[in-house]
Specification:
Elements lengths: L2 E3 L2 E2 L2 H12 L3 H8 L3 H9 L1 H38 L5 H45 L1
Antiparallel strand pairs: 1-2
Length: 136
């Protein structure tokens, strides 16, 4: 069973619904696959413990997807580089590969810079909040 918080756990049926909510495009379809009424599913989704468990399951699934994408990106870059340097590739294909590598590299750098900037801002806010607590 998945913990709900404060020691509570969600039921097996609720766990089953979460599995289907992650796989199905609608709450209605997920409820049907889980063998419960849609109204019950919607009621559970309003429950804070269930909502937390569902949110955690979605986050775990997203983290796994991001991990898979990160692994695939290395292969994608290697493919682009291989095509860009290939003697058999057309000039158009080589130019497209070079363009894609440049654009992706710039975008990656921008995201990195933004994350570093955000981290510095968060530290500043935390430091300011601690200072305010000390002043009071």
């Amino acid at each position: 069973m998945i913990a709900k918080g404060h020691g509570d756990k969600i039921s097996r049926k609720q766990e089953h619904l979460i599995v289907h909510l992650l796989a199905e495009p609608t709450v209605s379809m997920a409820a049907k696959k889980a063998g419960i009424n849609e109204s019950t599913a919607r009621k559970w989704m309003k429950d804070p413990g269930f909502s937390q468990a569902y949110r955690e399951a979605r986050q775990a699934m997203l983290q796994e997807a991001v991990h898979c994408l990160q692994q695939a990106m290395l292969g994608a870059v290697a493919t682009l580089r291989s095509l860009m340097y290939s003697a058999d590739a057309s000039l158009f294909l080589k130019a497209q590969c070079a363009r894609d590598i440049l654009l992706l590299g710039i975008k990656t750098w921008e995201v990195y810079e933004q994350s570093q900037r955000l981290e510095r801002i968060e530290k500043m806010v935390e430091s300011y909040a601690q200072h305010q607590d000390q002043v009071r």
